[in-house]
């Protein structure tokens, strides 16, 4: 089961701004990234997307690293070396019924 966003996140397509991020060490070999997305224009964020950039399970790590690569492509950043590079960037995000998220270039 995929849960990229929280259970109260709405489904649909959104032009979102990445308004914040944090990188959290969860263990010796695990690093989690949390992106804060805003599409309403109100202060704060509408959803948080959590993924693992480093993880002992290869499939989870590959999925997380694929998000980083896709976000770099969608925002025009050649090489993403810090999540702060994403702050203020706009992306098109789709959240489906399984709470999975995907990204594309903003309209």
Polypeptide structure, described:
The protein has 107 residues and is α+β, with helices and mostly antiparallel strands. It has one domain: Beta Barrel (OB fold (Dihydrolipoamide Acetyltransferase, E2P)). 17% of the residues lie in helices and 41% in strands. It contains 1 helix and 5 strands; from the N terminus they run βββαββ. The longest helix has 18 residues. The radius of gyration is 13 Å and the shape is globular. The protein starts with 11 loop residues before the first strand and ends with a strand.
Describe the SSE topology.
Blueprint: E1 12-27, E2 30-38, E3 47-54, H1 58-75, E4 90-95, E5 101-105
Antiparallel strand pairs: 1-2, 1-4, 2-3, 4-5
The tally of helices reads 1
Q: Classify the helix fraction into a percent range.
A: 10-25%
Q: Tell me, what is the CATH class? A: Mainly Beta
Low-confidence stretches: none
What is the number of domains?
1
Tell me the overall shape: globular
- Element-level helix/strand string: EEEHEE
Strand order of the largest sheet: 3-2-1-4-5
Average pLDDT number: 92
Helical/strand content category = alpha+beta
């Amino acid at each position: 089961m995929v849960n990229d966003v929280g259970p109260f996140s709405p489904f649909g397509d959104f032009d979102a701004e990445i308004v914040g991020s944090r990188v959290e060490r969860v263990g010796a070999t695990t690093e989690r990234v949390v992106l804060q997305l805003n599409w309403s224009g109100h202060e704060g964020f509408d959803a948080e997307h959590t993924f693992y950039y480093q993880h002992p399970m290869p499939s989870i790590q590959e999925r997380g690293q694929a998000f980083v690569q896709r976000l770099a492509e969608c925002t025009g950043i050649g090489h993403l070396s810090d999540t702060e590079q994403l702050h203020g960037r706009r992306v098109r995000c789709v959240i489906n019924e399984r709470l999975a998220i995907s990204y594309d270039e903003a309209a």
